[in-house]
Design a protein that fits this description.
single chain, 159 residues
């Protein structure tokens, strides 16, 4: 019985533990509602030059308003599906930036680089849309399963 209580107490403390903004990884920061790969990178960049004493310190970063600050303070996180979407989008964005960097270093003319950049951006946008569509489909599938479970439970109790 004591072991069960100890495990329960530990798991509850981990669920409500505040995230350390000075040491959190990009992925950990992205679990906070309102923080995606770009804002996570901004936090990481900011903390290299300044120590973050509280979530309020982030208001000095462009794009961090009271909404995001309250999400950090309140420990509001995103769903697993949304987090996976953010991670995939982050990878797509990193690849996009790398391809653009290579295009600039290729020695091609400004016009060719601009055309290549446009093509890269369009592909990245299409990939992100595809990821969003899959995430939405998974969410809807999960909702449908929940509804059917509820309906079958209700049916069993009425028999």
């Amino acid at each position: 019985m004591k072991k069960i209580l100890a495990i329960l107490a530990l798991s509850v403390s981990f669920m409500f533990a505040a995230m350390n903004l000075n040491t959190a990884s990009k992925e950990e920061l992205m679990t906070i509602k309102g923080i995606g790969p770009v804002k996570a990178d901004q936090i990481i960049k900011y903390r290299k030059s300044s120590k973050i004493k509280s979530a309020d310190d982030l208001q000095t970063i462009k794009g961090f308003g009271p909404g995001i600050i309250s999400n950090i303070k309140g420990g509001k996180t995103v769903s697993k599906a949304k987090l996976n979407q953010k991670k995939k989008n982050s990878k797509i964005e990193d690849k996009r930036k790398e391809k653009i960097k290579k295009a600039k270093e290729s020695g091609k003319s400004e016009k060719e680089i601009k055309a290549k950049k446009k093509k890269i951006n369009e592909k990245a946008k299409a990939k992100k849309k595809k990821v969003a569509k899959k995430t939405k489909a998974k969410k809807e599938e999960k909702k449908a399963k929940k509804k059917s479970k509820k309906a079958s439970k209700k049916e069993e109790t009425t028999k």
